[in-house]
Amino acid sequence: MISRYVIGIGEFIVLTTLEGTIVTHALGSCVAVVVHSKKHHVAGMIHMALPKSNEHALSMKKGYYVDEGLPLFLKQLFSHMPLKGQEVDVTVIGGADAKNPRDPFKIGYHNLKMTEKVLSNWGIKFIKLETGGHESRTVILEVATGDIRINKNQMLI
Question: What is the CATH number of the domain that holds 111?
């Protein structure tokens, strides 16, 4: 039986076997980073909610904030393989904006910018797939192949 791993908001997973699927749901303003290396048999996904933590941050989930969660995820990933751009595919998905054009927070935009900053600081090349817009997304990674499927739904806000 093929395993299906579902990660929630603020969670991440790193697999060292190339079988099964990794899924995350309700990716609105949140951002997911999907990593796959067929050569090194490593795959992972993180679902991040907000760009920056602060001293008052209350989340118990290690992947909730981009500035703290993404480096933890990357450290775990790259403890299983070398950090070389040609041997790993890194994809950024999500960061939708609210439908209200006067949204003062623009969380999706800020999540994407912080994600880009962290990945760039690590020297990681990435592609953006399905970012921005006004849709909520479900992301499914087929671990064996690295194929990513995205299902879109209209956001309610």
Answer: 3.30.1330.200
